[in-house]
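Lab meeting prep.
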Amino acid sequence: MASLYLPFGSTSLPKFAAACSLASLLFTVTASSVLAQEQKGQDQQVNPARKGVDQQVDPAKVDPPKTDPAKVEPAKTDVGVAQPVQAIKFRERPRYVTDPQRMRRTPTIDGVLTDGEWDPFYTIDDGLIKGTVYCNWDDRFLYLAAKTDVAATVLFDVDAGGDGWLRGSDNIEVVVGPPAAIGGAPTVSVRLLDASNSKDTPTWNETGVDPKIIVVAEKVIAGSQILEIAIPKNAGSLVLRPGVNFGVRAEFLPPINAMAFVPTQPFEPHLLLDATMVEARIVSAPGLNPKLTLSDYKCVPGQKLFGTLDLFNQTDLTVKIKSVLWGGEGNSVNTFNTLRDVSVPPVPGLKRGKMQYKTVLPDNLPLGSYILSATVETEDGKRVQSSASIVVVEPIQVQMSAEPNPLTVLGPTKLAVKVDVQSAVPDHWRGDVELIDYPAGWELRNGRKHSLLVDREDAHAVSVFNFQVPSNTPAGNYPLEASVFWKGKTWKVRTSVNVQRTEAPAAAGSTAPPAAPPTAPPAGNK
C-alpha cells in the first residue's frame, strides 16, 4: 500500500481529510453500482423465462436461451397456485415402446375408459406425471385419449400428413387444461403450424381450427384423470382412411388453463412418433404370418359377415395347428360369434393355409366400429393373431328435395318432389317410399306410395312424386313429409317448398281484375 507523508502540524491536514472523505464516498457508490450490475446479470442468466417472479434456480441446470423450449407461463389456476415453468424437449423423439398400427375403432367420448374401447399407443413412465396415451380413428374423427395418475394439462401434437413437423400446413397442436371455473368445461386451445412452401418462415395460425369443433370429455376418478378428445375429419387437412401415415405426440403438464400455454417458436422442430391408420393388425411369429380379410368392412345391423384367415408358412417344415380362436375384441365380444376350431389341417412348408369363418351381426347392433380377431396356436407353442375392424352404419341415408325451389306460380305449375335413398346394404335394397304429408289442394299425379329398388351396395335411387300446384296458391312456405319403410324400420324425412307469386301482365286494351289478397297456406293432406 502506498503511503503519504505530511509534516506534523501542517496546515494542509484539514484539506487532506476532506479529500479522503470524498474519495471514500465515491468508492462506496461505485462498488454498489458494480455489485448491482453483477446481481442483475446473474438474475437474467438464472431466470431467462420468468419475468417478475422470484425463483431459486441452480444456474448449472438452466438450458441456454437459444434452445427456446416450449414454456408454460406462470399462471394462477382456479385454486390460486402459481405453476412453475415446464420445459418440453421437442427436439428429442420420445423413446417409449409404441405400436404404430392404429386400428379403426369408434370409442365413446365420455371421460370413461371402458375395457377394450381404446387401443393403447404408449406409456409415459419417467416424468413427474405418468400415464398412458391412446389413439384410434374412424371415418369421422381421429380419437386421442390420456389417462394420468394425477390431474394434468395434456398437449397433443398431430402431424396429419406424416411428413415432418416443419412441412406443410397440417400440423395441429391441441392443449386441454382444467376448467376455468369449478364445474365448467375443460379449457381448450388449438393452433396450426403453417410451414407450407409459400411461407418464408413457419408461422402459428391461432384461428385455423375452431376449438369448438374438438369433442372433449374429461373426468377425475380416485385421483386419476381421464381425458378423451375427437378431432374431426378435415381439421388441419386431416385425412382419415386406411394406409394414412401420421405423427402423434402427447405431453403431460401441471394443471393450468390451456390458454396460458405458450407454444414454441414456430421454427422449433417437434419430433413425433410415427403411426399408420389400419383396418387390420397382425401379430406374427418367426416364419408364420397370418392375414385376416373380411367380406365387407362397412356393414349394417343384421348383415352376414364372412372372414378368411390366410396363414403363410415361410419355413420348409410342416406346421401343425392346435386351434384357431375366432371372436370379438374388448367391447366387440358380443358382436361376433365366438368359435374355437380344433380340426385345422397342418400347413406344409412354404405353403399357405386357409381358414373360413362366418357370423351374423345382431339386428340391434349400435352404430360404430368393431374388431374381429383370429388367433392361431400351433402344436409347438407358437401363437399368431390377425385382427380386422368393421364399421357399422345406417342401412340407408334418405334425403328429400323439391324442384324447382323456390317455386314461382303462374297458372297451374308443375313441381317434382324427390326422395333419394343411398344404400349401404350388401347386394341390393328394396323398400317402400310413402308421401305422408303435403299441402291440401295440391294435385298428386302418380300416387302416394312407391316401391323403390337400389340395385347394389353404395348406390342410390330416387323416387319422384309429381305435383300440379294450383294457380291460386298463396305465397309462403309449404312443408312436405315422407317415410321410407324397410324390414320393420322407418326413416322419416322432410322438406319445404317456398312458393312465390308473379302476376301475368294484362292484355293490351283490357283491364285486369284486382288480385285477391294473400291468405295463409292451407292445411296439409295426411
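Slide two material, second protein:
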Amino acid sequence: MSYLVFARKWRPMTFSEVVAQEHITVTLQNAISSGRIGHAYLFSGPRGVGKTTTARILAKGLNCEKGPTPEPCLECSACLQIAAGSHMDVLEIDGASNRGIDEIRDLREKARYAAAAGGYKVYIIDEVHMLTKEAFNALLKTLEEPPEKVIFIFATTEPRKVPATILSRCQRCDFRKIPFRTMADYISTEASREGITVTRDALGLVCRASGGSMRDALSLMDQLVSFAGDRITVDTVSGLLGLVETDLLAGVASAVLSSDAPTALDLLEEASRRGYGVEEFTEAFLGFLRNMMLAAAGAEKGISDLSESEMETVRACVAGVPDIAVLNVLRIVAGASAQIREGADPGITIEGALLTAARLSSVFELDNLPRVKVDIPAPAVSPPERPSPKAAPAVSPPERPSPEAAPAIPPPERPSPKAAPAVSPPERLSPEAAPAVPPPERPSPKAAPGDSGPDPDPPVAGEPREKGPSPEPPPPARGDGDAVRKKENEDIREIAGLFDLIPEPGGEGVRGEP
C-alpha cells in the first residue's frame, strides 16, 4: 500500500474527533437525532479547519446502516465506501473545474433520481464560490425545492462571493481557526501513536507556522519527520522552516529598550550571517514586539501562540519596561516594514529604524520631568475705556406734575346712563311755528386764574425754546352737573326739531305733518 500522508491518515472519522468546531458538530448531531435535517448547508471558514471532513462525516451519519445516526459505526459498507470516496450516492464535486452551467444542468438532472442504496443522496461541492453566476441561477430552483432525500453541502473559503439568493436557501455553518494549544495537543497525541517524539517548543513553532490550519500543521509534520526522523526539536523546526530564534529576537529587543544601539545593530548583522533575510527578520521582530506589548500591558490572554519557555522569555524582556516604550519601538519598526514593502533598501531601512528606536525608547513620566520656572510678566495697564453712547447718562426731561400737585382741576366725570334723567321726546313743530334756530355754540370754558397747565413739550436742557403758538389750555370745569345736563337736554330737543323740518323725499310735505 502506498504511503498515506498525515493529513489523510489522521483525519477525523466521527463528529467527536473534529477539533475546535463543537458549535457545528453538536448542531449537526442534534439535527440527525431529531430528524430535522436541512436540505442545504454552507460550510465556510479558513483553509484546513475541517469543512470537507465534517461534510463526509455528515454523509456517513445519514447513510450508515445503523442510521441515520449522529455516531456512524465506521464498519458498514456505506461508511467504508464514503471514507474511501467510492460511494455512489455521495458525490464530491470540485467547484473550480465544474463551474459552468452545463455541469450544473447535468447535476440537476441526476438529482431527480433516487439514491441507489436507498439512503440519502449527498452532493458535496467544494469551493462553491468559483461557480459562475449562470450556474448559480440554474441551481436555484433545485436548491429551494430539492427531491426527497437529496442534500447539498457547499464548502467555501470566501462566502462573500456566494450570491445572496444561494445563502438564503442554506443553513450556514462558520468554521473557526483552530487554537494553537488545541492543535498542539492533537498533534502530540497522534504523533505519540506513531512513535514520534516532538518537544513542546517545537510544537509551538509548528502551530505558529500553520496559521491555525490543521492541514498545514500536519503537512509540516510530514516534512519534519522526513527531515529529522522520529525526534523533532526546536532546532530542527527552526532549521527547516527558517524561523528566527526567539533568543535572537529577545536580544535585539532588550538592546533597543536599553538604548544600546551598537548591540542591537551587531545582533542584526548576526541574523544576516545565519541566513535570515531582512524582510523575514523584520516580520518576526514585529510579532515578538507585539507579544511584548501585550505582556507589558498585562494582556497575556491575547498571546496564544507561544510555548511556556517563550512566554518566560517575553516576560523577562518587559520586566520594568513601560508599555508605551514597547509601543514606540513597535511603531518605528512597523513603519520600516512598510517602507521595505514599498521598495526602500531593506538593510538601510531596518538599521535606521533600530537606531531611531534605541534613541527614542526612553519614556519619562510627568512626575519625572524637570521643573522649569517661568517668570510671568505683570499685565500691562490698559487705558480706560471710553464710555459707549449707550452707557452715557441721558438727560431726562423734566417730570410732569402729577394730577395731585397740578393746580388744574380734572374734568368732571360723565354721568352714567342710570344716573341720567329720562328725556322725553320733543314735540314736533310746524314749519311756520318753528323758527330756524342755529345750533347753539358751546360756551368756551374759562381758564382758571393762574392755571397755565403743564407744558406738553418741555424744552431739553441746553436747547432754546422754539417760538410758536402756545398750546391750548385744558378745558375748565363745567360747573354744576344738573345745570349741564339740563342744557344738554335743551340742545337735543332743538336739534331734533330741525330734523322734522326736512321735507320727505318724493313729496312736498314736511315730515311729521299729516
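Talking points for slide two:
The longest helix spans residues 481-500.
The two ends are 153 Å apart (CA to CA).
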